[in-house]
Request: fold
Amino acid sequence: MGNTSKSFTFETNLNSYFLKNNFIILIILLSITLGFSSCNTVKYVSENEYLLSKNTIYVNDKKNVDDEINDYIVQRPNQLVLGVPFPLHFYNIGNKNFEPDFEEWKNNHPNTSNFITKVFSEKQTKGLFNFKKSTHNWWLTNGEEPVILDTKKASQTVENLTSVYHNEGYFNVNVNYDVKFLKNKKAAVNYVVITDKPYKLDSITTNIESKVLDSIYMLSQKESLIKKGKQFRYSLFLAEQNRITALFRNSGIYRFNKNAILIDADTSNYKSNIDLIINDSIANVPFKVQKIQKINIYTDYTYNTKDNPIKDSIDYKGYLFLTQKNLRYNPKLLLNAVFIEPNDIYKDETRELTRKNLRRLNNFRTVDIKYNELENDFLEASIYLTPLKKYSIGISTELTHSNIRQLGISGKLSFLNRNIFKGSEILKFSVQGSFLDSKDAADNDKLLNAWEVGGDVSLELPRILFPFKPDKIIPKNMSPSTIFTVGTSLQKNIGLDKQKFTGIIDYSWESSNTKKHSFQLLNAQFIKNLNVNSYFNIYNSEFIEIQNIATNYFNEDISTENVIEFINSNIDSNFESTNPTEFTIAQNIKNRYNIITEDVLIPSAAYTFTYNNSENYKDTDFSFFRARFVSSGNLTTLLATNKDENNVKLLFNTPIAQYIRTDLEYKKFWNLSLENVLAFRSFLGIAIPYKNSNTIPFSRSYFIGGPNDLRAWKIYDLGPGTTKTGLEYNVGNLKFISSLEYRFKIINSVKGALFVDAGNIWDISNSNLTSSEAKFNGFKSLSDIAIGSGFGIRYDLSFILLRLDLGFKTYEPYLSNNKWFQHVNFKNNVYNFGISYPF
Reply:
């Protein structure tokens, strides 16, 4: 929980001199930044040249704020990072004239040059020269050379802007540019756009020569994007051209393409008369509705063996399955991914849907779909499938580090069997093991003193496997799948040493390109603690607190073995009447002990809805929303009959966790400019125990802090509420976290970030043992939200991103006064090292 193999976090203890001189360090960093900003940015700007410092577009006397319009500027100033052209400064550190400057120095200082050659060998002197030369070249290569004002490019920008506004219907637009020469060999360019009035669409006529095309078009004429009164826009005509093309190609017109569509515009007096012309043929071949007569599916196609004879074939419901060996796929099941049907008209959408779903099976390296024209305008569809290897073995190793597990070396061996039941199913078996350096281990002087082993088996089916067919609710075009998973793991010398058993039945499908659904009919987990007697050795801060109570109020010296016995015997109502604070502390410790050491069975069901309008993994301007609803223990407690002395229902002599939980997460990304992104994330989670449970299982509770969360605090280090427990693991059943991060490029693959995180966890149970500071008490508890801020450095390796973030405690709600900026220094900051972005 909260400790993943891809996230690392640690907090440094710097030496006392460093701690006492935080102010000096900040002054140095500020001086470096100011020094860069005051550096000679025109070092390599020659006489009669000017460094382009700014572009501004004015549209009808107003400054343009549309980033899309700014994209048409041909020449842009050097990239700024927080207002400073760092890449240009990096470039200026290098010496473009290093070799001639060096030769000139040798000629002007012959004695010094000869002395250096005598002291060092000629080979060493040449090596030093090459080193300095390569250093200068590195700065020049990785920096950004100055952008010199080019009026030809300014003129080209004028042409671009004129064309853009023409395409938007401003046919009388006037665009000019003006250069302002600034001090220190710099210049700014102002582009002035006067648009005049836009032209509007007036009369719209259609001229469709083909009766077949005309009848299809008339059925969707109301959906036309070109309508009277709309502003003339070239993009509107392109969209209508694409709409008509898609309409015809999904209505059986296989030969149709957008070149057959002509749009003629006659403009005058700010009005445009449009004539839509659609030809009746291409290359004198008339357009016709064409049906698919034959469908061939080659299940073992490869380019190298494409000419080999077909040895096996099966005709199934109008589909001909062909193979050069034996047919390894069940035709009925494979057709769940095929949407091209015999005797159906040709459709682009079924072709793409078939390609997408066949690729989704993860059984084929390539999927190719081709059509051939037959007699009488019929079509033959051929689907060529190149299968992946049936069996594959994967081995991976990983080095991990966190504030919980100081060092870890893990390995994983996985075995994969594709198409195990001839229906494109994937069976995966994996075993993994880790050797860890745990602070909880009995012998913690040794390196890698703890270990963890586990294994799991999963079976993925590209369809919904259920007692009844849900095709009407979840049709096959929604890419349905079913995953069965069974797994177990064993930990030793990690916390209380746990053994876990997990079983999952997960159904997933996509209702659209942006909406995904997952329904876990079962997500059951059984957790057994194997080292309960070591609880107070591991959670030492709790033992110290109860030991102080025993010493100060009872004059007893207790051990870690008899803490609970001491609480049961001494912390009673009489003690509460005289020492209410200490009574609550002791009862909290006992209650926490019972929660963490309790063996628990969690039989839950969950539904997850995800919305993501990101177009691809490179998209930096999109929204993401996820809602997850979990219910645990309802059916199981209804069927269970065994109870313990506290009237808690048991299954396999283990308490059944009963609770409901809701998680809501929203993320939004704005692409501000080239490689400058503003990212926002907010998360709200609530978990409520009821009936058979008084608390949420520890593994299902919320925590806060760490490299992907509130980065100014370590994992489990904050909350709940305004409490400052000093405990190792703090959890709650209500969580809120929100983050705002500005990401920018510094130089080449080095990127930076500024961030602000805000959040906390609370307890929303009705327990009398929970202090009021830990509970959520409506709007006034919003003042409990902690705030952390900081900056980060990231190195992008293309295939992976390495991240180092420094978080500073900006607002600490648990402080009695002066909660702002009390510990914003390098003594209390938290370093977070991670892989990939935090969200």
